[in-house]
Amino acid sequence: MKHVNKRHFSHEHVLVPLEPDDDGEEITCNGCKGEIDEQFYGCIDCKFCLHEDCAEAPRSMEHPSHPSHPLALHATPTYPSQTFCCAACGKVGKGFGFSCAHCSFDLHVSCSDMAPTLFDEDEHPHGLKLVCEPDKLTAELVCNKCCLPNEGYWVYYCETCKFAVHVSCMYSDDDDDDNDGKEEEEEEKKEEEDQKKEKAINSEIFDNEEFFSLPPPSSPSLSSLSISRRIQGTEREKDQIARQLLRDALNAAADYVGTSHTRRRNKFP
Ligand SMILES: [Zn+2]
Ligand SMILES: [Zn+2]
Ligand SMILES: [Zn+2]
Ligand SMILES: [Zn+2]
Ligand SMILES: [Zn+2]
Ligand SMILES: [Zn+2]
User: For bias kind Acidic residues, which ranges apply (predicted)?
Assistant: First the structure.
């Protein structure tokens, strides 16, 4: 990061390079609304801050995932809902985004800059290629992490093994750097217990003929996500219920992130 002040179209004052405090209080980016944990640009008087990547995102770009039109950087989504659905990760965006107004095509700033290839031996023994149009792949895709079928969002893919992981699942791992070995052991034990419990619940669900004829629950809850993960099979009805449950859970999660961010105050060094 260059240690120079910066002007940005989304803020009226000059932004200066700043470092997050050591006190661990969370700083939220006024651009993408995500958390900031490294050097950033900020206006101290207004407590306005931007990730370096958000501050330096170009005003417009050509992106290979949308070759027909250039994408323009919008500081706020221009839809009546003031949100957008990212074509890459399928998650809601409430701040900066690259947008084609003509096609209602939108990308998070971070999603616009994903590595075209990825090699992570823990993930897969071969290099993975970013596929922006998974519908064009001949193999039927199921994400190796969330076990849900492809809904058209981007995946990292190994052609040889037909191995696919949603980009959103690839980058959603919890950071466990702070854990020491003991905590990890305990977590493993807990995971085993959870799996046992889940097996028991699974057999309850599948033994219950009535389960699949129930309508989807009207109030979204995060626990519905784990239920949707347990639902396997190809019957159309099951599939529809699973998709509805997932949508509910994602909406609930997006709402939760929104309110928790608005509650937080930004802290400056
Ligand atoms: Zn940002
Ligand atoms: Zn300011
Ligand atoms: Zn995205
Ligand atoms: Zn377009
Ligand atoms: Zn996935
Ligand atoms: Zn492979």
Answer: 174-191
* Per-residue confidence (pLDDT) for residue 231, from 0 to 100: 37
The residue ranges of every structural domain in the chain are 6-56, 60-112, 114-170, 210-250
* Spans of the chain below 70 pLDDT: 1-2, 173-269
Residue 182: what pLDDT? 42
**Dist CA 193 CA 179 (whole Å):** 20
The pair of three-digit structure tokens given for residue 233, joined into one six-digit string: 């099979």
At 115 the three-state DSSP class reads: coil
Q: Tell me, in angstroms, the distance from the centre of ligand 5 to residue 221's CA.
A: 19
Ligand 4 centroid, distance to 133 Cα (angstroms): 15
Among 121, 116, 160, 166, CA closest to 141: 166
- Write b or e for each residue in 46-65: b if 16 or more Cβ atoms lie within 10 A of its Cβ, otherwise e: eebbbbbbbbebeeeeebeb
Res 1: pLDDT: 66
H helices within 107-151, ranges in order? none
User: Which residues are near ligand 2, the ion (C-beta closer than 5 Å)?
Assistant: 13, 43, 46
Question: How far does the chain reach from its first CA to its final CA, in angstroms?
Answer: 17
Ligand nearest to the CA of 55: 1
CA of 121 to the centre of ligand 3 (A): 24
Q: Which long-range contacts (CB under 8 A, 24 or more apart) does 175-181 make?
A: none
Q: Specify the DSSP element, H or E, that contains 27.
A: strand 27-28
pLDDT of residue 199: 53
C-alpha 252 to ligand 5 mean position (Å): 18
